[in-house]
């Protein structure tokens, strides 16, 4: 174990730098070595050797992880590597240049014929591309997936925006791995074309390690309910298939030695066929080591074997240490090997052993799941107890056989497929039904790194108590786990600071207001992607949704599971398009909507969905107020006496006083509505103004700005949007009045932290590059 910890610290420090956390952990490791009594010198020597070797490997990887290319237009020749993704009118693929550098490429099709032509592109093809290089975008919202870091850890530094029309490909000329990927892609496409989409996606996931073709709602249900690992090719899958193949080879007449030799040859190919993800590599490598030792009639301890694979993997691919799949796969493997003897001695029945394995795996992965996904569902434990045998004994063998039969037999006689067809649909219906309810979901928010360490210390103590079987160990274990898990949810209820966050939802609006001590959470609008009428061939598999992909992750990261007031300012899709998605993951107590005719189809759909969900819907107008201690809110518009027909001019205008700072949120209010507002409230002023209609020329009149006299203005607009928002003339008006301007198209999400002494501004994009504009 000393060598494993030293290696992790070495790689971590070599790549990310030796910060305080790494130095502290290294000191703890040294203290542990010094406590080894008779083996102090040996322990210190081992720790130092492994730490130095892996530090140098990390430093070397970091020094060589650079690009020789420059931003801008580029015409290149390269080889397509990996499996190209065609999704409606867009596509993504990776390109390997002759010098070895790889690019992440994307493009858009202008016609269905062009899409059809690209559907025949395969890994290994040599092509000439025309396009431009850009840096991968940094996350523009807090707690968002960092795509730039993700590519960097694969030694990819550029996004290549290619022109599909000006791309010309020759016959396959890549490596054997590229050609093997081409065969894999052909197999997946054949399964998709022959079988029902739900079953085909499952077969591909379990045999070829690609979950892309599973319906997004079903995949989300698997992930939220904690059974997503059953769709990944892992040690359980590889072990079962290896054992089954061994049995069949012996039954058809091969000797035990020849069967093992054949499997040793086949395992690396299967790892590539199944996607070569870290869990697949780990499982295939472990099976390979076990078979090799059996063939050579040598005994090897499981811990020694998996440690060798772990260290070799890190030496070959240092950045894999930061991949969640790698972390979870090896963490579960190490923990189950260390617990194997206790499981065997303490659990006598099959059910008992299954429960022990499930609980240990769930417990050890809990901190990492919470850190990356901000939530965990207690129902995952019973679901795993049911689904692991179901998948292991039925779905996995049937999927593998269906994929194998598909190579040689016509669809009509593929019996395993028909078996899957009869069971998969009902099972998925049950999962999606359970996923509709919050049940026992635990959402503590984004956890600090130190708390992850504390949680693992508690888990190790729980494991030791279980192994020692001290009296009432389970009661002590529950207390030891519940105290930190409950305690970490309490700080927001004691925090006297308020926050107002302007999220980057592209060309739309969405704001989250959190009052001190979590007295109330307001969400003002949800953003929404406006999609114009599209031909069927342009439709994409997984449509981006601002509610699902931006607002919900932000709320989960803040530990928010209940919205007290959802205020939808008006019925335009860029303000309410993400509202329905909230119902799947959040409890919304009250929805506030402006009085007036509800005529648009999307308005009716959203309000009907919330009514059916049991949310209180209040049609409001000027005069509505709320108070939470010193924090006050008031609706200033619309007013039913205006008889306004323009939905923008009927926007809800919300005035708020939060920790002594005055705010005005104006939706898409135009100049006409602004004049009415000044007539009704002639002395109105504010400290912070949410500029109306994304900074368009139809809003923010000079009269309005002169009366309000805000110090700070917020503009929510999409980067490079087609409308040219915010308008240059509006920006000039704001700059002439020396107002601090914060824009989502330049700064990403902007968070205002209020402590009663002013405003502290935090942006998702680095401030040293942006600053107020």
TrEMBL record:
SUPFAM superfamilies: Metallo-hydrolase/oxidoreductase. Keywords: Cell membrane, Membrane, Transmembrane, Transmembrane helix. InterPro entries: ComA-like_MBL, ComEC_N, Competence_ComEC/Rec2, Competence_DNA_uptake, DUF4131, Metallo-B-lactamas, RibonucZ/Hydroxyglut_hydro. SMART domains: Lactamase_B. It is a multi-pass membrane protein. This is Competence protein ComEC. It is found in: Cell membrane. The chain crosses the membrane at residues 6-32, 44-60, 227-250, 300-316, 355-374, 386-409, 447-466, 472-490. It comes from Alkalicoccobacillus murimartini. It holds the Pfam family Lactamase_B. Residues 507-719 form the Metallo-beta-lactamase domain.
């Amino acid at each position: 174990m000393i060598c494993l910890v030293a290696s992790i610290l070495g790689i971590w420090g070599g790549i990310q730098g030796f910060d305080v956390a790494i130095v502290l952990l290294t000191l703890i490791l040294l203290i542990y070595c010094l406590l080894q009594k008779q083996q102090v010198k040996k322990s210190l020597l081992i720790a130092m050797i492994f730490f130095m070797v892996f530090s140098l490997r990390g430093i070397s990887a970091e020094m060589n992880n650079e690009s020789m290319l420059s931003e801008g237009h580029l015409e290149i020749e390269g080889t397509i590597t990996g499996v190209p993704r065609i999704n409606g009118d867009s596509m993504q693929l990776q390109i390997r240049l002759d010098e070895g550098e790889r690019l992440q490429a994307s493009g858009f099709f202008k016609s269905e014929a062009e899409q059809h032509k690209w559907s025949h592109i395969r890994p290994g093809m040599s092509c000439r591309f025309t396009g431009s290089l850009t840096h991968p975008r940094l996350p523009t919202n807090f707690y968002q997936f960092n795509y730039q870091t993700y590519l960097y850890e694969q030694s990819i530094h550029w996004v290549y925006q290619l022109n599909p029309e000006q791309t010309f490909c020759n016959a396959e000329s890549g490596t054997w791995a590229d050609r093997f990927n081409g065969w894999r892609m052909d197999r997946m496409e054949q399964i998709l074309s022959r079988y029902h989409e739900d079953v085909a996606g499952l077969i591909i996931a379990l045999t070829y390690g690609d979950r892309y073709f599973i319906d997004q709602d079903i995949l989300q249900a698997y992930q939220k309910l904690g059974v997503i690992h059953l769709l990944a090719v892992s040690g359980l899958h590889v072990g079962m298939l290896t054992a089954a193949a061994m049995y069949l080879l012996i039954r058809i007449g091969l000797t035990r030695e020849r069967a093992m030799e054949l499997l040793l040859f086949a395992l690396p190919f299967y790892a590539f066929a199944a996607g070569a993800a870290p869990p697949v590599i780990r499982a295939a490598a472990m099976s390979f080591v076990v078979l090799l030792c059996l063939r050579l009639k040598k005994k090897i301890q499981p811990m020694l074997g998996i440690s060798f694979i772990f260290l070799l993997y890190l030496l070959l691919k240092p950045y894999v240490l930061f991949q969640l799949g790698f972390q979870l796969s090896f963490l579960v493997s190490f923990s189950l090997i260390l617990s194997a003897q206790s499981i065997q001695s303490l659990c006598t029945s099959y059910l008992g052993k299954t429960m022990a394995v499930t609980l240990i795996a769930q417990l050890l992965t809990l901190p990492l799941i919470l850190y990356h996904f901000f939530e965990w569902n207690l129902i995952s434990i019973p679901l795993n107890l049911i689904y692991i045998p179901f998948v292991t004994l039925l779905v996995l063998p049937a999927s593998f056989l269906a994929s194998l039969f598909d190579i040689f037999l016509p669809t009509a006689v593929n019996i395993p497929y028909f078996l899957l067809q009869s069971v998969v649909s009902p099972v998925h219906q049950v999962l999606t039904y359970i996923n509709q309810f919050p049940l026992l979901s635990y959402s503590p928010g984004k956890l600090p790194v130190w708390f992850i360490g504390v949680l693992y210390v508690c888990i190790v103590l729980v494991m030791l108590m279980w192994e020692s079987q001290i009296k009432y160990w389970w009661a002590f274990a529950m207390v030891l786990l519940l105290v930190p898990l409950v305690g970490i949810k309490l700080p927001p209820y004691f925090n006297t600071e308020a926050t107002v966050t302007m999220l980057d939802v592209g060309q739309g609006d969405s704001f989250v207001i959190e009052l001190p001590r979590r007295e109330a959470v307001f969400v003002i609008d949800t953003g929404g992607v406006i999609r114009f009428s599209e031909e069927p061939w342009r439709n994409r598999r997984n449509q981006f949704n601002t509610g699902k992909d931006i607002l919900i992750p932000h709320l989960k990261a803040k530990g928010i599971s209940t919205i007290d007031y959802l205020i939808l300012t008006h019925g335009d899709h860029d303000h309410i398009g993400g509202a329905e998605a909230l119902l799947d993951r959040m409890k919304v107590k009250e929805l506030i909507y402006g009085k007036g005719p509800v005529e648009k189809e999307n308005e009716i759909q959203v309000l009907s969905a919330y009514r059916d969900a049991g949310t209180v819907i209040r049609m409001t107008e000027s005069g509505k107020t709320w108070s939470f201690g010193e924090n006050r809110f008031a609706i200033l518009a619309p007013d039913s006496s205006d008889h306004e027909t323009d939905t923008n001019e009927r926007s809800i205008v919300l005035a708020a006083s939060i920790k002594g700072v005055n705010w005005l949120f104006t939706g898409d209010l135009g100049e006409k509505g602004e004049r009415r507002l000044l007539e009704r409230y002639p002395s109105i002023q504010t400290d912070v103004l949410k500029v109306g209609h994304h900074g368009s020329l139809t809003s923010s009149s000079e009269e309005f700005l002169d009366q309000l006299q805000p110090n700070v203005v917020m503009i929510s607009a999409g980067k490079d949007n087609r409308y040219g928002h915010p308008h240059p003339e509006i920006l000039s008006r704001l700059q002439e009045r020396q107002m601090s301007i914060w824009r989502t198209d330049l700064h990403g999400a902007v968070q205002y932290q209020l402590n009663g002494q002013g405003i502290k501004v935090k942006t998702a994009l680095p401030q040293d590059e942006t600053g107020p504009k």
